[in-house]
Amino acid sequence: MKKPVTTARRQLSVEISNYLQQEIRQGHLAAGARIPTEAQLCDQFKVSRNVVREAVARLKSEGLVESHQGIGTFVSKKNLRSGFRINNAEVQGDLAKLRQLYEMRLDLEISAAGMAARRRSREQLEKIQQLFIELRQAAWTDTNLVEKSLAFKQAIVEATGNEYFESFVIHLTQNTLDATSLEQRLISSNTLKTTLIQEYQAIFDAIRLGDPDLARRAAWQHVIHSAERNGIRGLQGWEITRMTTLGETYAPPCPAPLPASHKPQLPLPANACDCHFHIIGEATTYPFTAHRSYTPPSASFTQYLQLQKTLGLSRGVIVQPSVYGYDNQLLLDTLERSGDQFRGVVVISEHTPDSELWHMHALGVRGVRINLLYKSGVEVSDVTSLAYKIAPLGWHLQLLVDISEFADLYETLAYLPVEVVIDHMGHMPTNIGVSHPRFQELIRLLQEGKAWVKLSGAYRFTSQTQSPYSDVAPLAKALIQSNSEHILWATDWPHVCINTPMPDDTNLLEEFFSWVDNDEALIEQILVRNPAQLYGF
Asked: Global pTM?
């Protein structure tokens, strides 16, 4: 009986990849050497280019070769997986071993999808989209299906910026596709083609939106469904919604803030402003959203006023915490009774009515926050749309984001129709350093007057456990030197959701003094004049 074309082709591609692998292992093809061209291999083995391409794709998935566009394919000098091998012959037909492959893929592909959603640049997103289109076309023309599927996933793991994912995930996926004969089964089932494309579409859509949670869930469901299609059920439990459930219900409690221990050594100038603090009400009166990352204790406006008095502050900006999602009622109630010395920054959606925005404006709201670190219901894709929505009110857009994972930072923010404020100095781990490309983009935005930066939350991204956070000082000073007229300062009280000991607010203020070398003119600039300009005091 004649073998199906796809089976025969797969066996030929395995034969070629085994031959090239042996040449590499035996040193006949040294690291950095160019392997034979497609034409040479086609002639040597009397096969088509598609067979050769599948063979080379296998070698790429194992980290043995790498392509350089316009030059050729070369033996990898890194060879990241030389110590890790999967015997494909053993996996085929052995559900126990195949289950082990899927178990490894599950967590790795979920993590890769989430990281790609956070980190992908516009160029990487365009590549993922193009490869998805090619994959969809390949599914319906029955050509190069394995190659296109691997290329799509390769583009996703490349967007993580993690070279180990780039090597390991593709290696596992390649072996799974080989062991389960995906290509042959796709050719005989239009239903399977449709299902697979829908799963890949969900992953792509989540990465395009910049939603890490959604990307992880889409990847989770894809791998779980793939395993079930291959006779493996109950992979890491039986709940297909497990990712959703865990993501929505784990909200650990936070400790309460400390009372300020003493007044600061330097008296503050009149009208000094704390540009970022939160008010947390009693949960029975102001319920938290179920879609949150933490559960804070009550932190009342009365408590804050005591802190404000101790520190010598006069003005303040109340910022909507993520635990309330789009429900700004507590913030608005507080503004209504607080007088003209306070302003607010809210969380809204594209669907918030303009009439509601103008009502907020009358109460003292002057900005909208997009929180990309903690669950709040907003995503990267909201940046531009919300900027245009609030432009008529003269509001600013405030971003809580780890800038080291925000691709295209300058291009995304420099041309928005509103002022942009970056929370917590960009929330970038201090061990990355001021030379990091994204931090330099933030410096450029500051220098050009296209962004404001808050000197706050040092304990959130320091590598130390107690103040003074000396590793934060180089970042703070670099920001101040870039453009002191666009620098703000804030307590970030009541310091929710932190993994360091609770800070003393007086110590935080005095650490700010050290960043400006106790320069009274600079202190007045940052604490009084800059907030007055941005918030309209």
From this structure: 0.73
